[in-house]
Amino acid sequence: MKKSITLEITKRKPQEEYLHQLTVLKIIKLLLIWSVILYHTPNAFSQTLSNFNIELDKKIALELNTQYHFIGIEIFDNTSKKTVYERNSEKLFTPASLQKYITLFNGIESLNDSIASIKIQEIGDTIIFSGLGDPTFLHPEFGNHPAFEYLKTTSKKLFFNHKNISQNHFGNGWAWDDYTYSTSKEICDFPIYANSIIINNKKSSIQKFKLDSLVMLGNKIVRSEQSNTFQATEQKNHHIQEVPFKWSPELACSLLYDTLKKPVHISKLDSFPLSDSTSKIIHSQPKNRVLSIMMKHSDNYIAEQVMLQCAILNSYNSYPKYINDLSKSISKKLITPMRMVDASGLSRYNLNSPANFIKIISLLEKEIGQKELMDILAQGGQEGTLEDYYPNSQPYIFAKTGTLSNNFNIAGYLVTKSGTTLTFCLMNNHFIDSTSNYKKKVEEVLIWIRNNYPSSTVETHTF
């Protein structure tokens, strides 16, 4: 009996194991099937988003006519933390003034709370000062000039030390014949009066500069390429124009003499005569105010001077070398390779991608927060480069534009009607249409995105 019972148990055990294994396999199979169904069955939001992307493709083709030029886009949903649309987002484009995003990031990381204006050293009855690239020194947009007040109130002899950092007056790849336009002011270590004069109805804002006898040059005022000789048409109507002057250390000292009403000499020293421990820095304007003007108005002059100041304060003796080293450093934080040769974006040698600008915006968010970044950027319908675009009682677009002839780019934030904040970058290179017309077409695309982007709170399927 014991034997038969033992045999019976032995026979049943494999059968039980088989049934158990079969049951487990069935359960695993059902789980796998269920997971595949869950993975491949889109929820309501993803279905709507898919339709949105299809319609966006059609809208871009209709408005931007991409047959003959290049376009790159990336749209990032800040709620889902996902890229929801992209097209050529890792291709390289000419960024134009989107380059200022890098200058903004570097300025926030590298500079103190206020702009450094001049570095001074007192030696007996003498003050030697050198410029630190401060773009606001006697700039007409700023009413407070601490460095100027310091030089004005001292009774000591003033010597300007110019040999501080080597740089060309223009950046690499700038158009040589733009020297007469306010967008191409010269770069220098000690700018003064924003390195330009304002001519108002044939009168110069700086008396030292006189207009030559009037000649017919079209409806504008021009300057001779290698001198500060200005010529203008005979204007019948009230006319205001800003024209850069040709900077030199001698001119800077002369202009300062006219304003201070006391001599300013040029120092013969190659550098500061004593160590930094015996010198001090006079600061000027709040950094964030200067950077906000740079971004809102796409100010090339401020961008280059801010970057030059970063180079000087980091003890570089070459501005181009600083930009090259900075480019290598920032590239390590980005998605694709890039090329950076200036701070303003005037150069067509610059190359960057939509994916990189999305990344740079995210890096800026980590530094100062989304709200503060929105405040720094131009806003639709408000003061700055977006003043005539995207009008609304409540701004919904906060962005930086980048414009060169045949190129228009825009990147920043777009708040949709569904309440979602999108980070976006749209880059357009080599179109033939006029820039003003093309800006309107881009506006139509972005307004369409605002009106049609689906809400991420759409109810999803549940199982």
TrEMBL record:
Enzyme class at the top of the EC tree: hydrolase
Coiled coil: none
Keyword vocabulary terms for this entry: Carboxypeptidase, Hydrolase, Protease
BP-aspect Gene Ontology terms: peptidoglycan metabolic process; proteolysis
Gene Ontology terms, MF aspect: serine-type D-Ala-D-Ala carboxypeptidase activity
Keyword Protease appears in the UniProt entry: yes
Pfam families reported for this sequence: Peptidase_S13 (PF02113)
Presence of the UniProt keyword Hydrolase in the record: yes
Record-linked InterPro entries: Beta-lactam/transpept-like, Peptidase_S13
EC assignment: 3.4.16.4, 3.4.21.-
Family from the record: Belongs to the peptidase S13 family.
Protein name: D-alanyl-D-alanine carboxypeptidase/D-alanyl-D-alanine-endopeptidase (Penicillin-binding protein 4)
Lineage, top ranks: Bacteria, Pseudomonadati, Bacteroidota, Cytophagia, Cytophagales
